[in-house]
Amino acid sequence: MNGFEFQCATKMIFGREKELCVGEELKKQGASRVLLVYGGTSIKKSGLYDKVVKALDEAGLSFDELPGVVPNPRVSLVRKGIGLCREKEVDFLLAVGGGSVIDTCKAISFGVFYEGDVWDLISGKVKPGDKRIPVADILTLPAAGSEESDSCVISDETIPMKTGFGSPLMRPVFSIMNPELTYTLPPYQTACGCMDIMAHAMERYFSPTEHVEMTDRVAEGILATVIHNLPIALENPRDYAARAEIMLCGTWAQNDMTGCGRQQDWFNHGLEHQISGFYDIAHGAGLAISFPAWMEYLCTKQECVPKLAQIAVRVWNAPMNFENPAETAKEGIKRLRGLIREAGLPLTLGEAGVGTERFEEIADAMTDKGSHTCGAFYPMSREDILSLLQNMA
Ligand code: NZQ
Ligand code: ZN
User: Fold this and answer.
1) Which numbered atom of ligand 1 lies nearest the CA of 106?
2) Domains of the chain with CATH codes
3) What is the distance between the alpha carbons of residues 33 and 26, in angstroms, rounded to a whole number?
4) How much distance in Å is there from the Cα of 16 to the middle of ligand 2?
5) What is the reported pTM?
6) pLDDT digit string, tens, across residues 105-116
7) Mean predicted confidence (pLDDT) in 383-390
């Protein structure tokens, strides 16, 4: 196990009807002028918007609104939010929605104190400073884990490019998590969210660092919990217990608890961000295509097989083949693909409407034209990436 620092100070407020306390909690945290940020119509249709407005009014908080966040959130709206914060002297950002809404707030919160264009921060050209407007959220979609993570991901649709930045100060101050708020999620979105949660656990799980037994076991617990509860939530969207388990998994998969003391891989997220930057597909759908394909690709790499077999046995209950552990690994991948298929997610780029025309561009972008490799568990070269993309087609 490597040395590490870990601090996650986000206050988690979890349970039925907890959104009703948002006004009081904001006041307790020192808010006086709030910017309420949300996406499209889902929070209005569910009645959540009205509840939030009432709670803010009752707490005597004045607020402005920034609606219109879209999946794969756009830097243009971030710029608009920065302008609003400066004009209205906003001192607290409240995100109501999923990862895209929370990420938009995170980018605004740092962008307000940067004099240049916020894309400098997002693209990593300039490091974020230590000033930001605090962010809180009411989570409606367990997936990205942005409700406790220290990073955000934003797209510039004009380039097109999707990338992100982070800071230890970026974690939200508090996060309200009522599993009932996820009852209205369409099945596809529920499934995409679960795939993202699993991917966050696996990006850390697949590590070259040895002696990380405790965090491996926590990640395996998260994976097994999602695998068990996703079919239940799809069958009965109003199953509180299943929704609650998935919600907690979403946060703990991505707050970096399971990343402590280890090198992390993140190849699949790097690849997925390229794909969704070009093709605007759901993040979880992209991961459903890439993760099993990448695992299968690594079955031919001797040094990767033990960990691939370990996850197959411990998480997917595959029988261990001591003579040929790669077969065990493949059985685990087969079971992962089975879950993805049952959940209605794509398994190939073709099924997601992604063509082969940008493979070279993707491989170049990920490796800076072949000048470095990607991923810590197995260093993927430009050629590896091109072969993998062919397998994913
Ligand atoms: O816009 P509305 O109408 O609210 O609809 C949203 C949106 O269309 C809908 N939705 C959300 N909650 C709902 C609901 N529909 C019905 N009922 C509800 N309760 O879901 C759609 C997708 O929302 P979005 O926020 O885009 O999804 P998600 O939470 O999966 O976030 C994905 C974004 O997060 C980034 C991804 O790259 C992607 O851009 N990520 C952020 C990370 C982070 N900050 O730590 C890490 C992740 O790996 C990820 O990269
Ligand atoms: Zn993700």
Assistant:
1) 44
2) 11-181 (3.40.50.1970), 185-392 (1.20.1090.10)
3) 10
4) 26
5) 0.98
6) 999 999 999 999
7) 98
